[in-house]
Write a structure and sequence with these properties.
With 249 residues, this protein is of the alpha/beta class. The chain contains seven helices and eleven strands. It has one domain (2-215): Rossmann fold (3-Layer(aba) Sandwich). The structure holds adenosine monophosphate.
Length: 249
């Protein structure tokens, strides 16, 4: 069976984010971009499933500007077999991404689709859920363990109260959480090998998907600066301050 993994190009998690002077968004010019960390975990999981003989092929898909090729190359260097780029300069919101992924999935017919639980740029945490609804497939979000057998996935999910294990029928959409695995680094020979792996480029128009944004960003602002802390003289004073000054946020 095939596994399809979505890999998003985002601002690298080490970069200090700067808001644009006109408050229309964040600065992306001359900023280091990388694969969304949750998507690295998705690629790693798909590769482990292939190494275990469960999956025969791993396809990495990215949607966005031409430079998303680099993100796909990273997935190929980690070990993915081939890539698909849905290229557009348009702003892609989660619903548009879900519709585009659905179109790619209907062409490719993977049994397992892995996304990150969220992209660290907009922190939407929406695409996997929307995709599963559009496909009418089961979903298992926030996965910290995946076991595939007999056409089913047993997925342990990280939920507020601890862990939950569910059994879902394949084909299904799974989104990754942090503890699922530790992604491998691409070795130099694999980076070289990845250059020869195929990437097919398509467009939203070719897939027949309207990607017009449904949401408008009104203003982007820096979060308020963190206030300096205060030292207390005793545990009693601390408890008193917690009772009288602590705010629930
Ligand atoms: P979000 O709902 O925006 O937090 O994104 C959740 C996940 O959807 C990401 O971790 C990716 O796996 C996938 N995704 C979202 N946008 C894109 C994109 N432009 N290209 C590839 N994958 C994406």
């Amino acid at each position: 069976m095939k596994a399809l993994v979505a890999v998003k190009r985002v601002i690298d998690y080490n970069v200090k984010i700067r808001v644009k002077a006109d408050h229309s968004g964040v600065e992306t010019a001359n900023v280091k971009m990388s694969m969304n960390p949750f998507d690295e975990i998705g690629v790693e999981e798909a590769l482990r499933l292939r190494e275990a003989g469960t999956v025969s092929e791993v396809i990495a898909v990215s949607l966005g500007v031409a430079q998303c090729q680099e993100t796909i190359r990273t997935a190929l260097a980690m070990g993915a077999d081939r890539g698909i780029l849905v290229q557009t300069d348009a702003e892609l919101q989660p619903l548009a991404v879900a519709k585009l992924l659905k179109a790619v999935i209907l062409n490719e017919k993977p049994e397992i689709v892995i996304l990150g639980k969220q992209a660290i740029d907009d922190d939407c945490n929406q695409t996997g859920q929307m995709l599963s609804a559009l496909l009418g497939w089961p979903q298992a979000t926030f996965a910290s363990k995946i076991k595939i057998s007999d056409g089913h996935a047993e997925v342990t999910r990280e939920i507020d109260g601890g862990l939950e294990t569910i059994l879902i029928k394949l084909p299904a959409v799974i989104t990754t959480d942090l503890r699922l695995n530790e992604p491998r680094y691409a070795s130099l020979p694999n980076i070289m090998r990845a250059r020869k792996k195929p990437i097919v480029t398509t467009t939203p128009e070719a897939l027949g998907v309207d990607v017009t944004p449904r949401l408008a960003v009104l203003k982007v602002e820096e979060p308020p600066k963190r206030q300096a802390g205060r030292r207390v003289a005793s545990v009693e004073e601390l408890v008193d301050k917690l009772k009288t000054e602590a705010r629930v946020i």
